[in-house]
Structures are given as C-alpha cells and as structure tokens.
Design goal:
Shape: globular
Protein name: Tyrosine-type recombinase/integrase
Number of domains: 2
Structural class: mainly alpha
Main location: cytoplasm
Largest sheet: 3 strands, antiparallel
Order of helices and strands: HHHHHHHHHHHEEEHHHHHHH
CATH architecture of the largest domain: Orthogonal Bundle
Mean pLDDT: 84
InterPro entries: CB, DNA_brk_join_enz, Integrase-like_cat_sf, Integrase_catalytic, Integrase_recombinase_N, Tyrosine_recombinase_XerCD
Subcellular location: Cytoplasm
Strand content: under 5%
Pfam families: Phage_integrase
Length: about 400
C-alpha cells in the first residue's frame, strides 16, 4: 500500500464516485481501485470514538489507519499482513458496502464464511499469480483452508487491536474470537522441521559441494553463500526477512562473547548469542567476498549478498536459494532415501527456524533461554518444540496394557 492510497477516500465525494455503487466496481488492488463513496471512508464509522477523544495516530480515515499499522512491519511479515488487510478492505467496501470502522463481530463471522468460499468466484478469484497492476489480479486464488482462515483472522485481530489501542476504534470486534489455531500451530511445529538424520544429510551434501575443485565462479559463489546461510539459519533461528535485513555490523563482541543484534517481529530489538562456529563461517564468507575477515564492526553493508557480492538480496531470493539447495540435496539422495528426499523438497527457510529451535531443545537448552533465542512472546509457543520427552513418555505409557480379549 503506497502513501498515495490515502487520497482515495478524500477524493470519494467526486461525481464519478457517486455515479457508481461500490459493490459494482471491479475488484482491483488498492493502488488501482476506483474512488469510493464518502460514506465508506470510515471517517464517521460506527466503531469510531467521539471526536473529542484523543487518538494516538494521525489517520483521517480507515485506509490511512491501516497503512500506519502496516508501517510497523517489514519484509515478508509486511507482505503477508498487507494481503490480509487488503482482502478485508476490499470485501467490506465492495461486498458489504461498509467501512472497516463500522464492522461488527457478526460482519466478521460472515467474512470468515467468505474466506471459505469467495463468491462470486469470477470476481474475487484469479487463475495463477498476476502482477498487482494487471486487470487479471485478484485477492484470492480460491477458497482458504480452515487453518488459513484462522491465520487470516489472527492477523486481523491484531490489526483491530492496534486501532483500538491507538484510540482510532472504540473496540476490537475480533476480541471475542475463540482461538482455534493452537492445534494447527502445534501440528506445524511438529511436522515442519528436519529430523537430525535428514539435517545431517543436507549438511553432508553441502560439504560435498564444497569439495568441488573445478566449479565455475558463479557456482563457487553460490556454494559459499549456502555455506554461510546454513550456519546463520541453523545457529540463530532467524526469520527470513531478518536475514535479508541483516548488516555485517550486527555481529558484535562484548565481555568475551559474540552477539547478534536483530530487530525482529513487531520491531522488537533483541541480542542473541552468536556461536564461534557462526563467526568463523562469517569470516570465511567475507574472505570469499574479498572483504577483511575481521573488520566488520563498522560495516553497515548487507550481510548476505548477491552472487557478484555487490549488493544485498531480498527475503524472497533467500527463500529461493535455500529451496535450490534442498532440491539439489533431495535429488542427490532420491534413490537411497526417497522419504528424506521428499521431506527436503518441502523444506523452506521457515523450516530451518523450526529445525534450529527443535534441535536446541533436543540438545537440552533450558526453556527460558530457548524462548529468548527464538524470541517468542509466550513460553507456551516455545514448549511446542520440546520433543525430547516423547520417547520416555511412550515408554512409560507402554507399561499400561490390555490383556487379550479372546483366548489365545
């Protein structure tokens, strides 16, 4: 959402806007949406407080308020949150004929039903991913699964809470939503990581690549970057947008230890222990880039570079390059270990975060430190990664049995 979008609502009193009902407008991304009727701006929405009450954000209408919320995020989180906010705004304007600041809990129950089946599909759903500026762009590819619906509603619950806390809305219409995502969240954590054996296969494959003597320069650069990224992702459990935003100088030395400084989810600052093996991998990577192996304390340049070593790369490129690595490793072991190969093909950068936290838990890292490393706001989230007692639990439960119910 660009800043120019804030003009949409202020232009909405034009004759053009009044001549066409919002529910008849074609579905377009917010940058290309036709002017809307003034009553949809949210300037006088039913959930807005009296004018004399202090509001902590300078937002004359709903779209501006949503943009301020989005400005709190960056990278992949921003793109994900923008997608859900945009879907809701388009739905409440073009389907319900209401401003965001007039939605009630009942309206949002209807919105969840809409997520499960966006109709009319021809209006709301596209075939394949089209550029945002294209007339073929649509906010949906089809119905959302129950898990995706819950994920969308959790994001929107955070949006409404932000607007309520800022004094822009009187209340959060999703505050009473019953949380149904814990089972899916636990399932995701327990399935979307690499077992120790599969992880070792990936490491062994990368070691094998590093022994290639006659690789082309571009291939050598790719292998060097993979080598560093594997250390970074596994030893620090970062989110992919944090990797893309990282600078060389984010690693610093204090009182005998190395640390990594990161601004994480929601703009929260943290300092995480950086193991010596990671610092060694950073030195090797810097040497490959033609940089000093040790003088990075004042280096504000990107940590992870393109193959030419000239500039940083996006979160999407980091995601894609790690998918390339896991795909290569999967192809290499396909005949010997087809199940591991299938797992590697599914793996993504977020799998590496789950893998890191899970393996730290397996290694016996205390829960309080594990939560700080993962930067979880709740210990309940961190506990989902504790697998080490599963075997003992099964063994203890196995002591309780049932005699045969039929004669042998």
């Amino acid at each position: 959402m660009s800043s120019e979008l804030s003009l949409t609502a202020s232009q909405s009193s034009s004759p053009q806007a009044r001549s066409q009902s919002a529910t008849e407008l074609p579905v377009r991304c917010l940058e290309r949406l036709a002017p809307l009727p003034a009553e949809l701006s949210g300037a006088s929405g039913r959930n807005r407080p009296p004018a004399h009450l202090h509001c902590q954000i300078d937002a004359p209408h709903d779209l501006a308020a949503v943009q301020l919320w989005l400005a709190e995020y960056q990278g992949q989180t921003y793109r994900t949150y923008r997608k859900e906010a945009e879907r809701l705004l388009l739905w409440c304007w073009l389907q319900r004929g209401l401003p965001l600041s007039s939605l009630t809990r009942e309206d949002l129950v209807e919105y969840q039903a809409f997520l499960a089946d966006p109709q009319p599909a021809k209006r709301w759903c596209g075939h394949g991913r089209a550029p945002r500026h294209s007339d073929a762009w649509r906010p949906f590819q089809g119905p959302l699964s129950p898990a995706s619906q819950q994920h969308a509603l959790r994001i929107l619950k955070g949006l409404f809470q932000y607007l309520h806390d800022a004094g822009y809305l009187l209340g959060n219409p999703l505050a009473l939503m019953r949380h149904k995502g814990s089972r899916q969240e636990a399932k995701s954590v327990r399935e979307r990581y690499l077992e120790q054996e599969t992880w070792q296969v990936l490491v062994d494959y990368l070691v094998r690549l590093g022994q290639e003597q006659e690789a082309e320069p571009a291939r050598q650069a790719q292998i060097a970057r993979w080598h560093f990224l594997l250390h970074f992702l596994y030893l620090l459990a970062p989110r992919v947008h944090e990797v893309a935003q990282a600078k060389m100088q984010d690693f610093f030395y204090r009182r005998g230890y190395w640390w990594w400084a990161v601004e994480g989810k929601g703009g929260k600052y943290a300092e995480i222990p950086a193991q010596p093996k990671l610092i060694d991998a950073l030195k090797v990577y810097r040497q490959h880039l033609g940089l000093s192996a040790t003088e990075w304390m004042q280096d504000a340049s990107p940590l992870v570079r393109n193959l030419r070593g000239t500039e940083g790369i996006s979160a999407n490129m980091i995601y894609r390059t790690m998918k390339d690595l896991t795909a290569e490793a999967a192809a290499f072991i396909e005949d010997q270990a087809p199940e591991m190969a299938a797992t590697l093909r599914q793996a993504s950068t977020h799998w590496f975060r789950h893998t890191s936290i899970t393996h730290q838990a397996d290694a016996g890292v205390e829960l309080r430190y594990l939560a700080r490393n993962a930067r979880h706001s709740s210990l309940a989230t961190t506990r989902l990664y504790l697998h080490e007692e599963d075997g003992a639990w099964q063994e203890q439960t196995g002591r309780h049995g049932l005699k045969p119910l039929t004669p042998e």
